[in-house]
């Protein structure tokens, strides 16, 4: 299992939510703002198109020293030499994924203490936990978990936690203060008029949060 020091912002790039902008243009803006890890999510994109995007994203992210994680698709993650893959509860089981991914990063979406401890026990490098505040980005089938449950998760596992779901610039400090190592943000980033400036503001907030 790889050692992972997660940056405070876990940016998610979904080309379906970029307001018509090309995904690589948006990635450039995320990187310009200082994003240190980006997850590429493309639920409905044709595999060939997804791979082409992932390869271009891999080259660009590597040039900026940014980790690239591919959502769901182990085949795409391996084909573009991404740093890792992020899997949901209904995706390929972690043990089978590890055989394919070897030492690359594997993150697992979790929604309860039991799922979180299972993921840690089975060798996940980090967990996603949520939805924190509810989300319109993805139908999870789970109600908002909130910061109290996040604190329970922090007590239950030692591996890094990425909080996700309804997180915005206005509430992101709450999840860091409750024990999340990183905050996954989608719509508040991708919908920003100035994406790079939004990234910089969130990273500054993380510094302020650490000093409190």
Short description:
The chain is α/β, with parallel strands linked by helices.
What does this protein structure show overall?
The chain has 212 residues and is α/β, with parallel strands linked by helices. 42% of the residues lie in helices and 17% in strands. The protein is built from nine helices and eight strands. It has helices at residues 23-33, 47-63, 74-79, 94-101, 113-122, 146-156, 172-177, 187-190, 195-211; strands at 9-13, 37-40, 67-71, 84-87, 105-110, 126-129, 161-163, 182-185. It has an eight-stranded parallel beta barrel with strand order 1-2-3-4-5-6-7-8, surrounded by six helices.
Oligomer: single chain
Order of helices and strands: EHEHEHEHEHEHEHEHH
Report strand %.
15-25%
Q: How much helix is in the residues?
A: 40-55%
The main sheet comes to:
8 strands, parallel, barrel
Low-pLDDT residue intervals, each spanning 5 or more residues: none
Q: Rounded to an integer, what's the Rg over CA atoms?
A: 16 Å
**Mass-distribution shape:** globular
Q: Strand tally, please?
A: 8
Spatial arrangement of strands, main beta sheet:
1-2-3-4-5-6-7-8
Return the structural class: alpha/beta
| Amino-to-carboxy terminus distance | 32 Å
Number of separate helices: 9
Average pLDDT taken over every residue:
93
């Amino acid at each position: 299992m790889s050692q992972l020091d997660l940056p405070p912002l876990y940016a998610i790039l979904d080309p379906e939510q970029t307001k018509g902008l090309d995904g690589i243009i948006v990635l450039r803006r995320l990187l310009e703002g200082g994003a240190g890890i980006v997850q590429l999510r493309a639920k409905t994109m044709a595999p060939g198109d997804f791979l082409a995007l992932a390869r271009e994203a891999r080259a660009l992210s590597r040039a900026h020293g940014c980790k690239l994680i591919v959502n769901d698709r182990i085949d795409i993650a391996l084909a573009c030499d991404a740093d890792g893959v992020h899997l949901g509860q209904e995706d390929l089981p972690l043990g089978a994924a590890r055989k394919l991914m070897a030492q690359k990063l594997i993150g697992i979406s979790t929604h309860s203490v039991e799922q979180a401890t299972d993921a840690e026990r089975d060798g996940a490098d980090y967990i996603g936990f949520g939805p924190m505040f509810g989300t319109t980005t993805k139908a999870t089938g789970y109600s908002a978990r909130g910061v109290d449950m996040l604190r329970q998760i922090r007590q239950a596992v030692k591996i890094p936690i990425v909080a996700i779901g309804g997180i915005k610039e206005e509430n992101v400090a709450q999840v860091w203060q409750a024990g999340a190592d990183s905050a996954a943000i989608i719509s508040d980033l991708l919908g920003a008029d100035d994406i790079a400036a939004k990234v910089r503001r969130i990273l500054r907030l993380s510094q302020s949060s650490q000093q409190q």
